[in-house]
UniProtKB/TrEMBL annotation:
GO terms for molecular function: triose-phosphate isomerase activity. This is Triosephosphate isomerase, cytosolic. One of its GO terms (cellular component) is cytosol. It comes from the Eukaryota. It holds the Pfam family TIM. It is an enzyme of class 5 (isomerase). It is found in: Cytoplasm.
Amino acid sequence: MARKFFVGGNWKCNGTSEEVKKIVSTLNDGQVASADVVDVVVSPPFVFLPLVKSSLRPDFQVAAQNCWVKKGGAYTGEISAEMLLNLDIPWVILGHSERRLLLGESNEFVGDKVAYALSKGLKVIACVGETLEQRESGATVEVVAAQTKAIAERISDWTNVVLAYEPVWAIGTGKVATPAQAQEVHYELRKWLQINVSVEVAESTRIIYGGSVNGANCKELAAQPDVDGFLVGGASLKVCILIVLLKVPL
Ligand SMILES: O=C(CO)COP(=O)(O)O
């Protein structure tokens, strides 16, 4: 079965309620491919989740940018998977490199988070990716495989997982991976899943690319056989670009 194309917009720590309303209203008015052929998931900061959830068109979905590793409790500043489900937020982004690198989230911690979120019924966009130093030392595949392994060891069902390959050197830098570079790593990730999980999971799991995706480079990236969509940062705040992305021929 063909993998459904996936376009995610990660707004990171940006925006005011006025700006959020504007983006949502443009998305709502945009003519895009139907929900049958593309999943569209926007991920605002926590505080704007209810606003976006209540005003976004029903064929688009919402994701949180993180959640806590277990049941809520005395964890100041954290948001639990249970709370997201309570607000009908179906998706969560976990393991983004900004959290791995700036907040010290280890592969194991991310794996635990993915497992907990899935066990509660959330769908997970799980991020992996190498730094420039790791790429230059030839460790790219080893790094993304280790990140994926820490997840694979903790889960048994990949149905609700989208794997996002986001090379750290391409995030917010304007230095997009070439289509060949993206395809190579996506191919290796799929091969890893095939060998270490199953042929079925390798074939059905969507592997999306993130890192300086924009309206100009998305078509060529989307044409790669193992690129099943995008996780867009900066360009997803400029709504016109997200709309262009959604028109990528599938
Ligand atoms: O980190 C990203 C998406 O999660 C990518 O960010 P940019 O598109 O701004 O490079």
